[in-house]
Amino acid sequence: MPNHFHFLVFTLENHRGNDLNKAIGILLRSYTRAINLQENRTGSLFQQKTKAKSLTGFPNEYPQICFDYIHQNPLKAGLVNKMEDWEFSSFRDYMGIRNGSLPDYEMTEKFIDYNKSTFYKEAYGEINEEKIKMIF
């Protein structure tokens, strides 16, 4: 996305969302410093503070909702006509048309109803907007 990004990250049970939030904040600050040094500029690269949302305590379908929402985000924002056209998404990897190193397919199959043969059709399914509002 031009002004934000999403990660769906699974952590060990004893880690809290706040710890992840801090770690991502450190990563983004380091990235900002490097880009500012490279481009001889100053200031923020990102508009909003880092947010992490723990799905612990939400019903079991919420990781699936987040997974689908993340993939549908560029399409719903009108940035592409098909989800597979957005090059900065893991959608292409899950479809099998790119072999990226970021997705953990074993973890995905464990926590999300992911099936490579039905993924494309299911990924375009409607997401319950009320549940999205509860998460985000």
Task: Describe what this molecule looks like in 3D.
This protein is mainly alpha-helical and 136 residues long. The protein has a domain at 62-135. The protein is 46% helix and 0% strand. It has six helices and no strands. It has helices spanning 17-39, 62-76, 91-95, 105-111, 119-123, 129-135. It is globular and about 45 Å long. It starts with 16 loop residues before the first helix and ends with a helix.
Helix content: 40-55%
Count of alpha and pi helical runs: 6
* Global shape: globular
Question: How much strand content do the residues show?
Answer: under 5%
Q: Helix/strand/pairing class, anyone?
A: mainly alpha
Poorly predicted runs of 5 or more residues: none
- Cα separation of the termini: 16 Å
Radius of gyration (Å): 16 Å
**Helix-strand string:** HHHHHH
Mean pLDDT: 85
Key traits:
single chain; 6 helices; mainly alpha; 136 residues
Secondary-structure blueprint of this entry?
Layout: H1 17-39, H2 62-76, H3 91-95, H4 105-111, H5 119-123, H6 129-135
Give a short summary of the structure:
The protein has 136 residues and is an all-alpha fold. It has a domain at 62-135. It contains six helices and no strands.
